[in-house]
Amino acid sequence: MFDHVGFVVSDFDAAKSFYGTALAPLGISLLTDFTYSDNRHAGFGVDRPVFWIGTGKTVQTSLHMAFAATTRAQVDAFFAAAIAAGGRDNGGPGVREIYHPHYYGAFVLDADGNNIEAVCHAEQ
Predict the structure, then answer these.
(1) Does the first or last residue of the chain, that is N or C, have fewer Cβ atoms within 10 Å of its Cβ?
(2) What average pLDDT does range 95-122 have in this prediction?
(3) Which architecture does CATH list for 5-120?
(4) pLDDT value of position 37
C-alpha cells in the first residue's frame, strides 16, 4: 500500500546512527544520504530507500512506525540493537495476543519520542 515514509528528526546525525544500528538486524541499511533545499535526507531500505529521515520543520507529535521481521530472532536482535544505540524500552520482545495469537513485537522510543517497532507474524 505504501511506497515510502519519512519524517523530520531533531538531531539528524544521531538519528541516522540510531536507525542504522537499530534496523541492521532486519536487513535494512542506509542507502542514500544527501542535502536538498537546505535540508538533509537519509534513506534506508533493502533494495531501495523506503524509510526516510530528514531535517526541516519538526513534527509536533510522535508517530508509530512498524518494521516487518521474518523471524522472532530478528525482533529480538532489533530490540537489543535499538537499546544499545540509545533507544528507550517501550515494550520488550513478546507475543501481543491482543492483535493476533502470533503477533511478536518489540517497541522502542527514539530520541524524538517516536514509537519504533519490529514485528513478526510467523507462528514460531
Answers:
(1) N
(2) 95
(3) Roll (3.10)
(4) 86
